[in-house]
Fold:
Amino acid sequence: MKKAMLLLLICLTGVQVSQAQDKPRFQEDVQTIKHYDQMYAPPANPILFVGSSSIRKWEDLERTFASYEVMNRGIGGAKVNDIIFYLDDIVFPYHPREIVLYVGENDIPDGVPADTVLARTKNLIAGIRAKLPETPITYISIKPSPSRDKYRQTVQESNTLIKEFLKTQHKITWVDVYTPMLTKEGNSRPEIFQSDMLHLNKDGYKIWKKLIQPTLIK
Structure:
């Protein structure tokens, strides 16, 4: 019930805020989240799922991981720098015992090359580690969305660079969702996506659940 109300509030405010120069992207969405937190106290030390719309649209996240204390703070349309900008609003206040990240896919259609996606990801991890140096992080690879097939090479290159970088980091687990979401021939699987061929349907999230759950801590 609470989850449904939060999603409704976010939808009513819209995915993005005005492009006015004096108003940061997604400010209204974040203010909606803060307002919700005032109405309903967040759980203490949750497993925090944060990132872009693939997180936000996981509407049954709490039921999916019912045996864990999880919380969804995704922002639809967010890029890596947006999550960095709002760390003090949607990450640190919850004192998460674990963070599950999915972000970076929305950077690539802007023409951003893989090394820039990596650089932004490094900044994001550094931002988190500045205040949460020991908190375990699960990093979900960029997925192969059929609507973005033309960016496939950049997605693959980004995933490779980020995976190698994360091997050098403390308490970060890489979860490859890219490969399991392709056919044996390496083609996209439209049947696990919604009609927009960008967002996951229930079958797509079943794949994610199977891959992510072993990384979660009680």
The CA atoms of residues 45 and 129 lie 16 Å apart. The chain has one domain: 44-215. The first strand starts at residue 47 and ends at 51. Strands lie at 47-51, 70-74, 98-102, 137-140, 172-175.
